[in-house]
Amino acid sequence: MKAVDRPSRGTGRATTADLTASRPKPQLKKVLPEVWKLVKPRRFLLGGSFLLMILNRASGLVLPASTKYLIDNVMGRHELSLLPVIVGVVVGATALQGITSFTLTQMLSKEGQRLIAELRMKVQAHIGRLPVAFYDENRTGTLVARIMTDVEGVRNLMGTGVIDFFGGVLTALFAFGYLIKLSVQMTVVTFVILLLFGIILQRAFATIRPIFRERAKINAEVTGRLTESLGGVRVVKGYHAEESEARTFARGVDRLLQNVISSLTAQSLMALASTAVLGIVGALVMYLGAHQVVGGALTTGGYVTYVMFLAFMIAPIVQLVSIGTQLTEAVAGLDRTTEILSEHEEDSEPTRVTALTSIHGDVVFRDVTFSYEPGKPVLHGLSFESRPGTVTALVGSSGSGKSTMISLICGFHTVTGGHILIDGVDLSTIRLSSYRQQLGVVLQETFLFDGTIRENILFSRPGATEEQIMEACRIARVDEFAERFPEAYDTIVGERGVKLSGGQRQRISIARAILADPRILILDEATSSLDSESEAMIQNGLNFLMQGRTTFVIAHRLSTIRRADQILVVEQGSIVERGTHESLYQLQGRYYDLYTRQHGLETNLFLAPGEGDTVEDEPVIKL
């Protein structure tokens, strides 16, 4: 629909992006229910993974635990009979550790990728069911980033990241218990230092989490602008705006760079803190351990074992800097994904309970008002009826509200006041998924997918037979150009149909509408982009398409407007005149002014309405 029919939102209304920016920082407790939804179907897999993780971590502690016996018994007391036992246990534990590590990586990495694919499909399907107003507030590229990028970090909630996290905690607990047994004094001192380090990490992660969320937002904005720029490459080149677009993209990339630098600075400070902790703990253990060995409170083997177990306890804590960063990024991405999934779908309103199987197409506007913004109505008390098999033409100046009326008929927006009745049923109570199966839309700006001619026509009715497809193509005159291509109907049309002419794209669009066999038909300047010859070729197709259907026409050819059963003249959101072409012409009101001004007929008023009414001679009327 025409964007000009929709008034500017102004700066007083917060957009979705503004609302996103103003929302509070993501909290882990708010995301945990969503995490559980993802984990619940995989709880048995995760349970088995945790058992493997316990075996993995326990077997990894065998080597440092055996060091004490190796030094004190085998080397100190020359008990060589213990050496084969110690070596055998170490080899067996190492083999077990390797097998469990391989199994965990295979299980969790693959399941993490399946989770990402599943979540992407879920988000895409949900976005597809959101109302048009949501798309008005969000760039296409931004939504693409939400689907493809935001879910990437979720792999760490299901993959090896979460296992490494809990595995590190478990290893630290194992090691802590053994260290207490070896030396209470050194362990208490070390624990106090590590506790202080943990508090610092907790605050650091709370600071860095909003940075990751902001990064995802910036990345979505940059991706959105890049998508627009590439999609509008002909406009960019036509106005020699390559440098301007490059500067705009560079500014976005610079914002992204600054965000990354901020996060890297925070991570570097955490790495510095962890290094300092290692140094302090190492120095204290050397000092206290030397005194205990000399005093006889600890053997040499016990000291070496203590140092090795201390490394096993500290290493996971230090790794929390990187693992915690990954999990924080995953939480930020999941938080943004949750925002999308919390958006209400079109048919989610409790009032939409009526599912239509078929309709006759009787459309009634009863005192309809509509506002995009509260307190700023754009339609005022519209009332009219369009009966099945009739044509209603909407004319008026740009921005008068024509396309807004069509949007309401399509169910893209809900009326602010009054009612729209479809066969006597209030549209606000009808499930849109069933209603739109009865609609056919041919727009001025034809949208084709990057597929074949056949695939684009089948889009409206995937189960159609070959005979039905060929009949639609014959009526819309698609066969006249499609069969000249080497691949015929299997010819690739390119992105947005770029490999075809405007007339060819429009004919495919009309064939698509014919194949859909709708009860209500919308023609929004359906032939305005065609030359007179192309228009004449498909006029019969349009006439066929309108037969027996309730048709709404915006700014169509003069022939269609003349033949319309009723013409509604819309100005500033109100119907100021209504009637047939002849009656409105003779009224010499607003319709007459538009007609004569746009076609220079002031000097030919002696012509009776209908004279010279041939398709070939008719000018395009842009009403």
Structure description:
It is a single chain. Helices cover 60% and strands 10% of the residues. It is α/β, with parallel strands linked by helices and 623 residues long. It folds into 2 domains: 22-344, ABC transporter transmembrane region fold, CATH 1.20.1560.10; 364-602, 3-Layer(aba) Sandwich (Rossmann fold), CATH 3.40.50.300. The chain has a 6-stranded mixed β-sheet, with helices on both faces. A 4-stranded antiparallel β-sheet has the order 2-1-4-5, with helices on one face. Helix 3 (43-60) packs parallel to helix 9 (160-182), helix 4 (62-76) runs antiparallel to helix 13 (300-341) and helix 10 packs antiparallel against helix 12. It starts with 15 loop residues before the first helix and ends in a 24-residue tail after the last helix. 33% of the residues are buried. Mean pLDDT is 76; it is low at 1-26 and 601-623.
Whole-angstrom Rg: 35 Å
What strand order characterises the main sheet? Answer: 6-7-8-3-9-10
Helix content: 55-70%
Low-confidence stretches: 1-26, 601-623
- The percent range for strand residues is 5-15%
State the fourth-level CATH superfamily of the largest domain: ABC transporter type 1, transmembrane domain
What coarse outline follows from CA principal-axis ratios? elongated
The chain-level mean pLDDT equals: 76
How many E-type strands? Answer: 10
Q: Which CATH top level class of the largest domain fits?
A: Mainly Alpha
